[in-house]
Description:
The protein is 74% helix and 0% strand. Helix 4 runs parallel beside helix 16 and helix 8 packs antiparallel against helix 14 (279-311). The protein is an all-alpha fold. It has helices at residues 13-24, 27-30, 32-40, 44-68, 75-83, 85-114, 123-139, 142-171, 188-191, 195-209, 214-219, 229-254, 266-272, 279-311, 329-348, 353-379, 384-403, 411-447.
Amino acid sequence: MSSKSGSEEKLVWWQLSMIGIGCIIGTGFFLGSALAITMTGPSAILVFALAAAGTYLVFDALAKMSAKDPQKGSFRSYAKKAFGHWAGFSSGWVYWGSELLIMGSQLTALSLFSRFWFPNIPLWVFACIFAILGLAVVLSGTHGFEKMENIFAVIKVAAIVMFLVLATLAVFGVFKGQGHGVNMPGTMGEFFPEGYRGLWTALIFAFYAFGGIEIMGIMAPRLKKKEDAPKAGHMMLILLATIYLIAITLAVVLVPFDDFTTKESPFVTTLDHYHLPFVPHLFNGAMIIAGFSTMCASLFAVTSMIVTLAKDGDAPKVLAKKGILKVPHFALGLTVLGLITSIILALAMPDSIYEYLTTAAGLMLLYNWLFLLFSYKRIIKLTGLDEGKRYAGIILILLAVSGTLLDKASRPGFFISLIFLGVIAIILFIRNSLGKRKKGAKVHRARFQ
């Protein structure tokens, strides 16, 4: 958004908080929470609390670096500053890979939401439709994108508020469910139906629901007062964690654990258990809009990251060139290839693709969060308390990453993330080797001239 002078308008701290909430709430929460609940039951409440704490610790580090030295490249710029050019290259491409996987996860989630109404239509058909609509939004330009995102943000928050109000009324008996009332776990066995192993494996999906805090670092340079970055993020996380925890709590106490499924949002499942005509359909429609919003944001993010990498010499320069529509068409083309791959995967593995992509996307996201915590120590002089918080954040992230190895359905996502890391490492090695050869050739020529 531009001011009259043509420069970007500055944000006050609460505006940045609202932008963060709007960008983060999406399919990771609306459907990813179903994976957590089916794995660990009512203890999903604890899982989301732990993920909220871990996210806070990561953001606390990001906010302090943003307040000291705001960077448009955010975490990527800090990695480069802390460890050198190779770190900026790796962090940027890991982020691109995570956002690409997130797009695939969102496309599949949107398709699953759509099958609530059209259960016999294959996932890939819906994935194609949403991919084309998303590209249309991106091609409408930045101004059109911002207008749509503002509308989408209002709808997704309204959907959660609607669920909270209706579920609270159900708790107090205003609505009658299908033969059961409130299901409060009375023993440890009821709270942890899958044991501590279930809690451990579910942690990755709770973290995934908080994915997007990076936007707070990217937008920090637009604050009127850069020292307000921590306050903006802390308020955003408090509101987000409160919304998440209340919504998850209401879902698990209103519906028996065995009734939840990974094919449907736990909130639609909950509302569907009560005699509320059209409400589950209305909520499902709002979730589709919310998921589509985050998918469009991811499209913009991956395209912008490719352009940034190209401008910094970390990707072919041609990817930064803009076409007739003033859109970097080569960068967008690379993103489209990723979308096509996601659609092909949805066609090949309709029953498991969402969990695979969500696990891999969450892991790639957490790899960058780890990078950020390692960069933090090199950029900021830490107190004893800061150091303790940094280690706590690292431990929680490592728990989430290792938990994927314990679950048969999540394990493929872990190996998909490793393949992405391996490809990035190979490209970096080849790039550095070619750079050394060129440098050596120049020195050799200079000696004989």
